[in-house]
Design brief:
- 27% of the residues lie in helices and 22% in strands.
- The protein has helices spanning 16-27, 54-75, 138-146, 194-200, 284-294, 303-306, 352-370, 377-403, and strands at residues 9-12, 32-35, 49-52, 77-79, 86-89, 95-96, 133-137, 153-154, 159-165, 168-173, 184-187, 206-219, 229-235, 243-249, 260-267, 314-321, 335-337.
- It folds into 2 domains: 2-45 and 139-206 and 321-403, FAD/NAD(P)-binding domain (3-Layer(bba) Sandwich), CATH 3.50.50.60; 78-131 and 208-319, D-Amino Acid Oxidase, Chain A, domain 2, CATH 3.30.9.
- The protein is α/β, with parallel strands linked by helices.
- The protein has 8 helices and 17 strands.
- Strands 6-5-13-14-15-12-16 form a 7-stranded mixed β-sheet.
- This is Zeaxanthin epoxidase, chloroplastic.
Amino acid sequence: MASLVRKPILISGAGPSSLLLARSLLRSSIPFLIFERDHSLSFRAQGYRLRLSAQGLDAIESVLGPDGFPKFWDACGKTGGSKGFANLNALTGEEVPEAASQPDVPSQPETSTQKEPPKGVGKEVLTSRDGKTVGISRGDMRSLFLEGCEPFIKFAHHVAGYRLTPTGVHAVFKDGTESVEGEMLIAGDGIYSRVAKQLSQGKLKTYDTGARGIHGQAPSTAFKGLGEGVWRIVDDSKPDGKVFVITNVRPGDMDDPNVNFGWTMGGQPGVIRPPNDDFAIIGRPAAEIAKGLSAGWHARLRPLFDNMDESEAAFWKITCSTPSGVPEWTNEPRVTVIGDAAHSMTPAGGIGANTGVRDSDLLGRLLAEAGGYKDGVTLAYEKEMRVYASEAVRTSYGMATKQFGVFIDEESSPTVGS
């Protein structure tokens, strides 16, 4: 009978990490409530696909179990091409050596407080299972993780902080109201998480690298000129810096104009400039900038932009957490953070989402073993998370210094959400 009156675990945000944690709690019969600021999962353009590493897939399979994972696996795209990225010259359409496709890394000031990027950051490992690159759209991932959790999610609830009590914790919403009392609050609400700022007393920081990007989609028929593979397209002819596009062209569907494939465009700092630097703007403004930057590219590449679904175009800001590692803060037994709220990463290497689902697997497992809230759970989670997440952030940043030409000084570089 006691389990019927247990207070729920409160989860802030409905991104992939939060929803996968919810699925873990659901399997363990631990009550929970999810609070999401948007009005639905499809409120904003999803815009891009996530590449799943072996560790990411293992974490998802661990949480979903033998009953839930097969459906998720079937929804994933599996792309051949185990050699890694094929790099294309945007102007000629020809394949070029990988070293020639990397931007020059800006020189670092002698007074910099940032440690050198990790040594040995080389070619990205793309394959994860069966010699294939496995990916899924962010929107599809969220929808699949949400299954079974629908009764426990409250949309249009923007968590802006928390209030501890002697027996639990309340989520505090932006309008000043509060949630029911929960046993714990888990913040998985991304780089602008106010819970993360409150919990860490400002130690959790997300830096704005200055680099910008655009997510886009086009009918799969537009990708026939590329064919199956994982492609990095690079244009180094721009006066302000290099522009690149990454896309994963999976087999099948390339004759079906009703199926969309995605691409991600990125530029070195100063190349892509959203109007007023406003990332809430989606659709035509983003599409027009992408079309302008790709004007003059080779004919095999032009269909990706000429035929794009303008409504799905979206700007994005390339950010990164503290490159030297996830900082330590005073542990609070009833509150912790997962995913981008704990460790934002650049898109280099496709590491961010995979690290986030590892958080969900680890924290969900610890909560299941404890039967719910227990003093020491968040401490154990944070200790283990800091090890693998710090390594992931350093690796992602090291790759980004080469791919995006970015540089972070931990004392002087601007942060987001301050």
